[in-house]
Every structure is written in structure tokens, then in C-alpha cells.
Design brief:
Elements: E1 4-10, H1 14-25, E2 30-34, E3 50-52, E4 55-56, E5 59-60, E6 62-64, E7 69-72, E8 77-80, E9 85-88, E10 90-95, E11 100-104, E12 120-123, H2 125-138, E13 142-145, E14 151-155, E15 158-163, E16 166-175, H3 182-186, E17 195-207, E18 216-221, E19 229-234, E20 240-247, H4 253-262, E21 274-286, E22 293-294, E23 297-299, H5 311-331, H6 340-351, H7 368-376, H8 388-409, H9 411-422, H10 425-428, H11 430-434
Parallel strand pairs: 1-2, 1-16, 2-13, 10-18, 16-23
Antiparallel strand pairs: 3-12, 4-5, 6-7, 7-8, 9-12, 10-11, 14-15, 15-16, 17-20, 17-21, 18-19, 19-20, 22-23
Helix pairs in contact: 1-2, 1-5, 5-6, 8-9
Length: 440
Amino acid sequence: MAKRYDLIVIGAGPAGIMAAKTAGENGLNVALLERRANIEQLTRPCGEGLICHKHEHGENVRINFRDNRFVFPYNGFSIKYEGPLKGVFKYDQYSADGHTMEMRLYVGERKGDRQTLPSHFAFDKELLLNGLLDEAKRNKIDIFPGVNASDVEKTDNGVIIKGNGKSFEGTYAVAADGLNSRMARQLGFNKQRKFLGTLRVKGWRMRGLEPPDPQSHIHVVEGVDAPPMFCILPMAKPDEYYVSIAGWSTVDFDARLDQMMKRSRFSAWFKKAEILKSNGCVLNLCSPISEPFKDNVLLIGDAAAFAQISNHNAILCGWKAANTITVALIKRTLGKEGVSGYLEWWNKNFYDSSFTVPPIDPNETLTREEINFYFSLFKEPLPAALSAEEMRKVMGEAMAKIMPQLKAQRPDILAKMENLRKMPPDETWAERRKTGFPNR
């Protein structure tokens, strides 16, 4: 007779592994399904190997350097991490001519990673996930690599998940299968979601780069003249960086990288650069799901979101989902009633704050020349903003300082930004949708 599980987890990213680990610790019988044959190895581009010291979504993650743990104090748990850490002290946006809009990512005088804590730390995501996976194994969960969950069937007292000729039966299932969630599509969620666009991404892990500040998160912004976003992010390992290019239309990523490395004002940064590894992905973006539960399947993390959420928030989703389902099983309140606490928490902390259809960044609307002028007005670094509310305040105060000069010298730029602000959100995404291919 096939084994029946309390919980089937689909997807072995940060949300899925954390859900499986936590449910196993709670004494549940758990199956973890992952389409990759090698769960331990990351294969998709990931420039988000960051843990952030900032208050968002009801949490403020801290780092316990003494015991090597990431701490979630508001929710009362922590996870082990014994890998390298590198402080990221600034977020620098460069125009094509080298003008910089700089935002500090630390409070007080910059002295070092631990004396003055930056708000962001680069960490080794693969090492963190493997540590969580080892803990999950110690809690006797059953792990099934190479299983691409492709079908879901509701039963009288649970759910059946099928994939690669195998069938798994459980009381609940958690779908943590990423932004292009197959479970979301199978359950019909995407039919109600608004398609926003298709983002193409390619990334390269490099060493030997020499940017002005080795601990700065850098974006090169060239406006509508060169629309793909070019990003450099410090990695946790010494002298390693993650370089990525993202665009909404078909992009020759390798040609764009070659141009930046050899024929731009930033080419000096790459004279000693060595490419270690490259990868790519295609992401369809849709409006987030307000109630991500159907047929005893709970969608968590990226699977229910508008875009990829941060690693610590994905971990938080997995922990919250596993504990909610554990309580539901104890109380025997199955179905939607059993997970109502998670759904309320998701709606409050992620659905509302992820703004159903966000506006386009002005940097994607202005020309190269206009961005050069706009960035040249920011003479001082913007202070650190450790929450979304603080970010709005900081940007508002910065705009107030440059507004007289912008209004006097370049009313055309101001008019463009004002028109964009007033434009209905759905209209701002129209061009992105034209180059995308929705997969319902």
C-alpha cells in the first residue's frame, strides 16, 4: 500500500525546503518533490543571495554572528548558516556618463561588516539551502528528486499529486514551485490573474572585477536607448560577483555583456574579469494571488507572488505554512478553514504590499541623455531606508531637493515623470505585455 503523507511539498527552493523541514520537525509525515535530479545544485540565475536587515512583512531578520544563525525574532525562530557573509553597503545607480544616484545601505559611520551593520549581506544561497535540506533529512522526510509535479487531484480527505509516472497522496500539499508555478496553472489560478510581461534574464558568476566599491550593489541605467537592466552584485565568496542582464524583449545577452565589458565607460572594471559560470531563465510575471489555496493545495512564496520575493521572505512563507498546516491537522480543521490563518497573513503582508499592478520605473521611460541629467542632480548619497515606508520618505525628500532645478532646467523630464505617475497602472504595462507570451 502506498504511503500516505500529512504534507506533500512541491519545490525545493527556500520556501519549499523550509516548509518540509519545519513540518518534519513538527512530527508530520512529509514528502518533498523536486523536478531537478540534483537538489543540492542551483541551476537558475540567482543574484538575490541577500539577507536584509530591514523591517518588512512583519519581520526584521537579524544575524547572530556568534552562533552562525539567521534570526527571525518577530516570529520566534532561527536557521543555521555557517557559510561566508559579505556586507553590501551601498546601492549605486550609474547613468551611461557615470553620474551616480547613491543610496547608503548602512546607518552611522561605515567601519566594517560587523562594527556598523549594513542592511544587506550577501550569503551563499546554495550552502544555506543544503544546510536546510540536511536538517530536513534528519527529520525523516521523504525526498524525491527528478519528479516534476504535473497533475493534482482532489480527494474526499486530501489531495493526490502526480508526476513522472509517480503518485503521492496526502492530506495537504504546499506548492513552492516558483514564479512560473505549474501547480498554479493546473489549479486554474492563472486564468484570473493579469498577465504583466515576460522577463528574460541571463547571469554570469565572475571574479576579478574592479568596481569603484567592491561592496556596492550596482545598476547601470541607460534608459530606453539600451533597455536591458545591467546589474553587478557582490557575492559572499571573496572576489566573486554576480553580473546579470534582464530585459522585457528579445535580447542578445552575450553581445550586451561584451559591449559593457569592452566598449563602455565601465570597461575598466572588467579588465581582469574571469567568467566562472553562466545561466539563464525566462519568467512570466502575473498579478499576485490574493487567496492562494484550492483543492487542499496551498501556494506559497514565488508561486503566488507578482515577482521573486527575497530569500528571507520565502523562508518565512515556508515556516508559516508548515506551522499553519500542523495546527490544522491537530485541530482536524481541514480544507480552507485549516489554512485561513496563513491566507490572512499572506493577504496582509504580501498581497497588499506587492501592489497588484506596479508602475514602470522612470528609468525605463527616460532617454539616455535625460537620465544623465537627472542623475547629475543628486549630489549627496541618499540616507539608508530600512523599510518601504522609509524608502518613500527618503525618495520624497531627495526629489524635493532637486525639484527646483529640474523644473527650471528640464521641465520636459519633469513632465514625463508626472505623466508616468498619473498613467493608469495597467496602461504602463501594455508595451511589456506585447513582447511577452502568457502561459495560462
